[in-house]
Amino acid sequence: MSKDILLEIGTEEVPAHAMPGILRQLREAAATALQEAHIPFDAVRTVGTPRRLALLVTAAAEMQDAVTTVHKGPSARIAYAADGTPTKAALGFARGLGLDVTALRVQDGYVFAEVTHTGEATKTLLPSLLPALIQHLSFPNSMRWGRETFRFIRPIRWLVALFGEEVIPFTLAGVTTGRRSRGHRFLGDGDFDIPSAQAYEATARDHFLMVDPKERETYIQHELCRELAAAGAKQTVDPVLLEEVVYLVEYPTVLCGSFDEAYLQLPEAVIITPMKDHQRYFPMYSAATGRLMNRFLTVRNGDARYLDTVRHGNERVLRARLDDAKFFFTEDRKQSLWAHVESLRHIVFQNGLGTLYDKALRLQKLTVYLNHSLQLGLEDAQLERACLLAKADLSTQMVMEFTELQGVMGKEYAKLDGESEAVAAALQEQYLPRYAGDDLPQTVMGSVLSVADKIDTLVGMFRLGKLPTGSQDPYALRRQTIGVLHILLQRQWDADMATLLDAAAAGYEAADEAAGDVRKQLEAFIALRLKNIFQDRGHEASLIEGAMAGHPLNAMQGQRRVEALETARRLKQEDLLQAYTRVGNMVREDTPTHVTEALFTAAAERDLWAVCRQMEAALPAVYAAYDFEAALRILRTGMDAIRTFLDTVRVLDENIAIRENRLHLLARVYALIRPFGDIRKVKN
To answer: Is 327 domain-assigned?
Structure first.
């Protein structure tokens, strides 16, 4: 027999951005816990609204599965006398497991015993299993309330725990479980009882709760598209905003509002930001012209009653926001963006790192360095102007009020001032990527400015000792480092981060005595981020270790090396890696590579030397182009000679001169594959 399990955690409103991760954690943890407890089940789901997290387990068995374990005892020689009589060792082993000695069996010279543990009733396990699930959830931020020591993302107000129709009793954070839940704040009739786990969703719906976020998303998207079609707007819905709105409501109703067309004279970003980021409204674009319309869609947490009143309220709030934006825009346009540069002298970037104007001067030097070292062909004068303008919009009233518009307003004001398209685009792209999965800069100048800005911040913060610790990263240094590496990989720029760090450090005052330690921490920090990127792309850990050994801070070269090693693995070329690994295992890092032909005594030596010279002539060109796959094809031509030499020649000859010459030859051969990193770290 089986029953469904329900666990509902009733809370104060949980932030929408945290909900998907929490529900995923709860689902995965529950599946793992049930499996480890040997409780069979059909499926595990999690659903939730802003005020509840719910776990639903379908068809959980009423009893644990019986579990048989095998125990290894003493050797048969010790366990039994010569006549087969059990000794004290066998008797004690059996007694310790609660078995009769006749249940023991001998296998491979040892005594074994099988013990079958009868499963317990599931309802006796759930009172400890369910609260453990709640306690092990992790959050970006958690809190305590009242006199509680227990921490959770928001205060827990009620708990429902059912196994079929039966309440699973436990108490957590001062709240005792029952079957009583809470309905919609405004539409429901207050608290209500859930008769059974199976009836949860239907009962919740009767109290104006659409608990399944997928159901809410489907319904909201359908209603949004219906309203868009009716208004002659494009049938596009921002998926990020949609996901957030899904977790802001329990019973959604879509409505359409409007605002004065005069506001459309403002830059589009000035209108969109208050709508989306502040009010969670969906902007509407004309299907005919593609231009922003003076209408918006929003989702109400309630039913269709009094929609006109709700619409009017939303329109009034948006009008106030747009009035503010219009005022700030008008005030900002009384002077050019360039005029704001001077004010950067009075805005501190970070205590110990100077002002924003100081940062702009550092960016000038660093971007020009990048331009020349990477041979990008940009105009230095344009780069320097972009650097001075980069932070200018931070002193504008618009950005001080709507901080989300940093960079965006820089671009808008620069275009209105007649700055070049390249400079204007770079002012916005300097902040990209802003989060995981965000767009990367699309222009070369924007990419250069973004890399320079992030590296300058990274070096400065490490100099101040403001390193990320554990989950704490208040200055987003991990995100900024990952952003730099993604840009370098996307652009395929042959940039060694070590030299970029040197160039950035030169923009600060003379280094102190701890600079060496800071530099080591910084390089290790960057190398770890790059390894994580390669792992996220599906590369094996040992290939990454091998490819990055000796070259840990060049993203583009590291990518090509690891991809080439991956190709070798995919094409069943492990024998190539094994052959050169054998060579590498016989030499030290400091083994000389001077070879004397006159000391050769075997034909295999001469053959290996000849093929080594041929590969030495061919490899530099492909390595210079970072064509590591072509390098593998060349290296393969030496495999037969390597095998013959290692199989037939005694490397450690009694004659010291011959022995050292043979080791020098192997070091010379291994040097051919060293540009790949250290292939000895690659698991074959």
So the answer is: yes
